[in-house]
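Data deposition worksheet. Section B asks for the primary sequence of the deposited chain exactly as it was used as input, without tags or linkers unless they were present during the calculation. Section C holds the resulting structure in token form. Section D is free text for depositor observations; keep each observation to a single sentence. Incomplete worksheets are returned to the depositor.
Section A, Depositor: J.P.
Section B:
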Amino acid sequence: MIRFFRSISIDKVVFSFLLIVFYSCKPKMALPDPFEAGWKGEKVCEVLEDNAALRVLKCTFAPGVGHEKHYHNKHFGYTLVGSRFKIKDTTGAREVNVPTGYSFSNEDVSWHEVLNIGDEIAVFLIIEPK
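Section C:
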């Protein structure tokens, strides 16, 4: 047994330690995803499809309803019914009109929070490839 430990070089021990540290320190997303996130404890998104290839969400926001701070993986979105929103993300806060028929996509993992400040119920489809 002692002979076994003498045959292990310090380089192997250091390399093994670094591997353990690297894999245990991977960043973990602390925020909820769009489905998990809601508004004041209520869900705003429902799952329309979830299979091996994609997940499709339908998210509905009445006036005064938002989507708490959450993250998105790569996705494509389509606005079924638009409204005016206050959006806060890494670039700051802004107000935007999101028209019906507007599409958007994001290739990066990103976060934001939104609030429908318009007079219309807004509805979005979010399509996430897996």
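Section D:
The chain has two helices and eleven strands.
The two ends are 47 Å apart (CA to CA).
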